[in-house]
Design a protein that fits this description.
- This protein is about 5% helix and about 35% strand.
- By secondary structure, the protein is mostly beta strands.
- The protein has 2 domains: about 200 residues, Beta-galactosidase, Chain A, domain 5; about 160 residues, Beta-galactosidase, Chain A, domain 5.
- The strands form 7 sheets. It has a 9-stranded antiparallel beta sheet with strand order 11-12-13-14-27-23-22-17-20, with no helix packed on it.
- The protein is globular.
- The termini are far apart.
- The N terminus is likely disordered.
- It binds alpha-D-galactopyranose (GLA).
- Alpha-D-galactopyranose binds next to strand 24 and strand 25.
Amino acid sequence: MITLSACPCLLRSWFGYLALTALCLTTMRSSSGQTMEDFDSIQLATLKNSSGMTVKVTNYGAIVTSIVVPDRQGKLADVALGYNRIEDYINAVDKPYFGAIVGRYGNRIAKGKFAIGGETYSLAVNNGENHLHGGVVGLDKVVWSLKPIVVPGAQAVQLSYLAKDKEEGYPGNLQITVTYALNNQNELKVDYLATTDKATPVNLTQHTYFNLKGEGEGDILDHQLMLNANAYTPVDAGSIPTGEIAPVKGTPFDFTTLKPIGRDIDQAHEQLKFGMGFDHNFVINRAPGDASMQLAARVVEPKSGRVLEITTTEPGVQFYCGNFLDGRLKGKSGKAYVKRGGFCLETQHYPDSPNQPKFPSTILEKGKAYSSSTVFKFSVQ
Ligand code: GLA
């Protein structure tokens, strides 16, 4: 049995000036006869800060398994959906990508096909006729290597993975590193870096489902959301963008000021039918080509007072409100994850960009570096 939660926090002191806070890194061991060869190398790292916030990360799928933050009374709750046992991540029905890094291409590529320099590539197709989140065995289902690293003012781990040439159909050997760093301002920073030996599409993102009341505490329709986006990319019935960049004004997609997620979700709007609710890429307000850190989203949970603010270098954010959860999955505290029991804000480039000439490019050329950052900041009001 692998128990991710049983982490006997070892205080590592090699960090010198970081020694005030504890980083616990434990190797998980399997005794349950599971066949996955890599079980013995599955690790769980716990990042802690001086404000009482804790983030747990495993090297299976680079998954954030837990984010514990205080409410306005100082009461702690785990606001990230997930499991206690690694087996549950591996065997989950419908593979919801809880907490994982998804890619090489987060989101969809139409029919799993694209061309670079006249050569056509065919990717694994795993979402109807389309490619989703890197394929059948995407980055969320592989074992990464994990090591603690020194990041001034934060506790941090770095995860690395070499996605091989032709893996899930993608061209090029892609060397990826993802860093999770937790500072004392309750900011979890995620930095992505990648290099390739052949031009390839790259669109990495983080797929945590949040419920700011606490995981398993019902649905998130009462959370208030602001998206810093005057436009979104409408999709067809298979959730592939039509290519249009449509204004949100006057539609249920207008989150330009805080409003409850559930307020307009049942409106008779074709896009809401296609997504079974919100499952759309929003175009973050910024000048074309600007890749500085910009506010993408602000979420307020009125009862607990917990606030989540997301800033990113990415041009888009996929707002998915857990439409496909249906109560079958039970999470860390044994409670069922009901429909819309969590929301994801996946900072990213737009879906299907390799086939959409008007969207910002997602092709990483040989010799160039892919670099992207997102900060998840927690506070209370
Ligand atoms: C993304 C997609 C959704 C769904 C979830 C995982 O957010 O846009 O359609 O696939 O991942 O269930």
